[in-house]
From TrEMBL:
<feature type="coiled-coil region">
    <location>
        <begin position="58"/>
        <end position="85"/>
    </location>
</feature>
<dbReference type="InterPro" id="IPR036638">
    <property type="entry name" value="HLH_DNA-bd_sf"/>
</dbReference>
<keyword id="KW-0804">Transcription</keyword>
<keyword id="KW-0805">Transcription regulation</keyword>
<feature type="region of interest" description="Disordered">
    <location>
        <begin position="1"/>
        <end position="26"/>
    </location>
</feature>
<dbReference type="Pfam" id="PF00010">
    <property type="entry name" value="HLH"/>
</dbReference>
<dbReference type="InterPro" id="IPR011598">
    <property type="entry name" value="bHLH_dom"/>
</dbReference>
<keyword id="KW-0175">Coiled coil</keyword>
<feature type="domain" description="BHLH">
    <location>
        <begin position="18"/>
        <end position="68"/>
    </location>
</feature>
<feature type="compositionally biased region" description="Basic and acidic residues">
    <location>
        <begin position="10"/>
        <end position="26"/>
    </location>
</feature>
<protein>
    <recommendedName>
        <fullName>BHLH domain-containing protein</fullName>
    </recommendedName>
</protein>
<dbReference type="InterPro" id="IPR015660">
    <property type="entry name" value="MASH1/Ascl1a-like"/>
</dbReference>
<keyword id="KW-0539">Nucleus</keyword>
């Protein structure tokens, strides 16, 4: 009968295994983080730009960003042509800009993980805002109203629908059209 003895592991082998375990854990955490970031990115993109595979999604997202840049450039050109048609002087242009900036800050829509936060300043009807959110498939989690600088402020937190295909810009434009 032959007796086999277990050979003791070398110190280098133990350290190598520890490094592999650490490397594996770091890679697993990196993949989790990438999945979370990818999910957040998907929530910002309209469903028509989403395909089946991740690489297709990324390509479509790049196309979407290019489309947005083109739209911004087109709107800038339209704005300049409207200024020329109206013969807006530089002094009145700056006062017009202040008015439009204030108007732009009146309704703010932003995404936080799987939630959408809507801030509404001014006398916009809360019931109309809530109706738009419901038609868009958002579930209202909370709504806080207060008065700031003698103006009513509503902050509404909503959960994104199960599809996750909410278009924040479109939602904001629908809310802006309520006033």
């Amino acid at each position: 009968m032959m007796i086999k003895f277990k050979t003791p592991q070398k110190k280098g082998d133990v350290e190598k295994k520890k490094k592999n375990v650490v490397r594996r854990d770091v890679e697993r955490q990196r993949r989790r983080d990438m999945a979370k970031l990818y999910q957040r990115l998907r929530l910002l993109i309209p469903s028509k730009y989403l395909m089946r595979s991740i690489s297709d999604h990324i390509e479509e997202i790049v196309d979407y960003v290019k489309d947005l840049k083109k739209d911004i450039e087109d709107l800038g050109r339209k704005r300049e042509s409207l200024k020329e048609k109206k013969n807006i002087s530089p002094s009145s242009s700056s006062s017009m800009k202040l008015i439009s900036d204030d108007d732009q800050d009146r309704i703010i829509v932003k995404s936080c993980n799987d939630e959408v936060e809507i801030s509404v300043k001014g006398g916009l009807s809360l019931s109309k805002v809530l109706k738009v959110l419901m038609t868009e498939g958002l579930i209202v989690n909370s709504c806080v109203s207060s008065t700031v600088d003698q103006r009513l402020l509503h902050i509404i937190q909503s959960k994104v629908n199960t599809r996750g295909d909410i278009d924040l810009a479109m939602l904001r434009s629908k809310l802006m059209s309520l006033s």
